[in-house]
Amino acid sequence: MGKTIKLKKGYNINLVGEASLVVGSADAPKTYAIKPTDFKGLTPKLKVEVGSEVKAGTPLFFIKEMPEIMITSPVSGEVIEINRGAKRVILDIKVLADSKMAFEQFTSGNPDGMDAAGVKQTLLNSGAWATIKQRPFGKIANPEESPKNIFISGFDSAPLAPDYGFILKDRMEHFQWGINALKKLTAGSIFLSLPTGVNSPLTSTKNVEVVNVSGPHPAGNVGVQIHHIAPLGKGDIVWAVNPEDVANIGKLFKDGTYDAIHTVALCGSEVNEGARKYYTLKKGACIDTLVSNNLSEVNSRIISGNVLTGTKVEQNGYLGFYDRQITVIPEGNDPEFIGWLVPSYARPSISKTFLSFLTPNKKYKVNTNMHGEERAFVVTGEYEKVLPMDIYPQHLFKAILANDIEAMESLGLLEIDEEDIALCEFVCTSKMPLQQIVREGLDLIEKEG
Amino acid sequence: MKFLHKQLEKVKPNFEKGGKLYFLHSTFDAIETFLFVPGETTHKGVHIRDGIDLKRTMFTVVIAMLPVMLFGMWNVGYQHYMATDPTVAPALMDCIGYGLLQVLPIVIVSYGVGLGIEFFFCQINGHKVNEGFLVTGLLIPLCLPPTIPLWMVAVGTAFAVIIGKEVFGGTGMNLLNPALTARVFLFFAYPAFMSGEYRADQEYVWFSANRADVADGFSGATMLSQASEGKELSFSAWDAFIGVIPGSIGETSTLACLIGALILIATGVGSWRIIASTFIGGAVMGWLLNVLGPIVAPDNAFMALPFYYHLIIGGFAFGAVYMATDPVSAAQTSKGKWVYGFLIGVLCVLIRVFNPAYPEGMMLAILFMNVMAPLVDYFVINANKKRRLARATV
Question: Measured between beta carbons, which residues in chain B are less than 8 angstroms from residue A348?
C-alpha cells in the first residue's frame, strides 16, 4: 500500500441521473469532429482539406507552437467540412466515417524494449501525444521537456462522472502497456491515485506508485492530487493523462494502430432512465445517435463533460477531445417569484440558509439558472470550504483581477487549473466567473513568461 | 404570479435605454429582481450554480437582527415607563407600542436616506443596486440612542453611504463598516446627543421622557458611564444580560444578540470565528485587568469591574455579533479572523477602562481593527507564500 491522502474540504453535488454500470448499444456515429478549441492556447495548422481521404491516425492538423504534435483523425473516411469562426479561427474539422475502419500503422512493440525517443515518436506520430496534458497551464505537453512526475487520477469525483474502474476492467493489459510506455518519458514516478475503500481493478497496476485518496469532489482532480503528493515548485513541470487514454496508448503499442476509444457515460436528469448507461465511442464522435431518441421533452442543455467544467453542445454536436461524459440537464430560464427568499424547488447549496444541509445524500434535479446576479466580492471564507489546497482563493482571484503577476504566482496560481476551482465558482455567492478569471491569469503568466 | 410578471414585462421598456423613465432604470431593476429571480442561465464556466445569492445572505442577517430589534423596541418603551413611574410594571404591549413610535421613524429615515443615495449612485454609475444596505439600514438605528433627532439620523446615514462606502466604489470595496461609520460620525459631530446622561437641550439621552415626568432619584446614565465614572452600578449583571437597561436601541440585550449570533452561526452567514474570538478577547483582557488592578492601580474601580461585565454592558455583544462580522471590513482569512476578533475584544476593554472620555470602546475598537484587518491578512497570506517558496527548494 502506498500513500494515503484524506481530504475533508470539498462538496459532492448529488445529481439525479447517474449512468448505470452497463454498456449500452447505440447506432455508430456517422460523423466525427475534432475541435481545435479543445486545446487551450495553441494554434492549429491544417494538414488536410475538404475532400481529403484519411485513415484512423492520419494527421488532420499539427500544432504551430510545437510542430511535432499531430492531431489525428479518430476514424477513417473523408474530410467533409472545415468550419471557421471569427478571424478565420478553425472551429472544427469534420470527418465522414467509412463503414469499415482502416488504420494507419505505427511502430509497435513492447515499450519495455524501446527507448524514450522511440516511445515519444510513436506517440507523436499517432496523435496519442495530445492526450498528455501538462501542469501548470493545463495544455498539451511539450515533447521537448521532461516531466518531474506523471500523474494519473484513476477516478473522477465530479458530478455524475464515469467510473474508470468499470471502464477499464477488461483493458488492464492495455493500461499496463500504456503505463510502461509513459514510464519511459519521466525520470520521476508515475503516481496513480485511486479512491480509498473502493476495489478498483487498477490497484494491481505495476510500475506506478498507488496513492489512495478519499474525500468529496474535487478529490479526483489531478491538480488537487499533485498538490498533496508532490507539489509543483517554481519551474517544475508534470504531466497528467486520463486513465482510458493510458489504455489507448497501451493498445497503440500492442497493435500498432491508434484507436481513440472514449467510453462515455450518458447521464443527467433529462436523459431517459433506460438510456443512462455507458457507450463506447471514439474521440470527437457525433452524439446525435446517442441522444436523439433518449431525451425528455423538456428544454434542456446538453453538456459534453460534467456540469462544472463541460462545454455546451447541440443535439447534433460532438464529444470533446478530453470528455468522457455527456450530461443533460434542464435549462432554467423561468423567472422565479421571490426565489431568493422562498425557493420553489429544492436546489443544492453549501449554504446552511437552505434546509438541504439536513439531507446531505438527497439527489437533486438541477437546472442552469444563475439563482442570482453577479456582485462584487462580499462573502469571505466560502471558497476555502470547497478547495482542499493550501491556497487562499479569494486573494488569488483578486490578484488576477489586478493583473499582479508576482502575486498570482506566489499565491499558487500555477498549481491550479480551471477545473480545480470550478466548485468555487459553483458556490460563489457573488456569481463570479472564476474559471474564466483563472484562465485569464494563466494566459497572462504564460505570455509574460 | 404570472400576472405580476407580465405587468412588469409590460412596463419594462419604459425603463430601458431610450425609454421615458430611463433615469429610474436601477430602481426598476432592483424592484424587478427583488420580486423575481431572473430567468438568466449560465453561459460560461459552470453550468449550474448554488442556490445562494447576496439577497438571501443579506436577508439572513436582517432576520438575525430581528430579536435585537424587537427587544430594543420593547426596551425603549420599558425604559420610558420605568423612568416616569417605577412603581408600576408596564404592560408588554404598551412598551412595544411606545417603542415602535420611537424607533420606526428612525428606521424609516435610515432606509429612506440610505437607499435613496444608493439608488442615485447606481443610476449614475450604471451599476446594479447592491443588497448590502438592507443590513446597514437596520444596523444604523440599532446603534443609536432612542432620542436621536431624525435629521441627525439622515445626516449620519448620508455620511456613511457616501464617505464610508460609495467613494471607495460601493458595496464590497469599503474599508470601514458603514453602520459604524455613521455612528462614529454622529458621535464626534454631536457628542452631546450621543453620550452622557443629559443632552445639550437638557433632555435625557438614553430614554425618551420629559424631565418633569421622571421619578425622583432615577438615573439616566448607562451602566458604562456609571462604570467609567466609578459610580455604583444601578443595574445587576442579570439586568444587563437580559437587556432591561438604558442604552442604544439595539445594544442593551446580550441575550437577544446571542440569539442573533446563533442564527448567524447556524446559517454560516456570520463568522463564528470572529464572534467567538471577540468574546474571548474581551474576557481575557477584562480578566487580566481584574488581576493586575489591585497591584498597579488599587483606586481604579473600573479595572476591578468583574471581567464578564464587559461582555454584557454597552455595545460589546451587539458589536461582536453584528458589526465585527461584516465580511467586507473584517479580516478575510480564517486565521486572520481569529486575530481580528481577539484584538477587537482586547481593544474594546482597554479603551473603556483607560480612556474615560470614550466609555463606549466597542465602536472605536471595531473601526480600528477594520483599518488593521488588511494588515492582519497580509501576514497570514505572506506566511502562505513563504510556505510555498520553502516547499519549492526541498
Answer: 48, 50-51
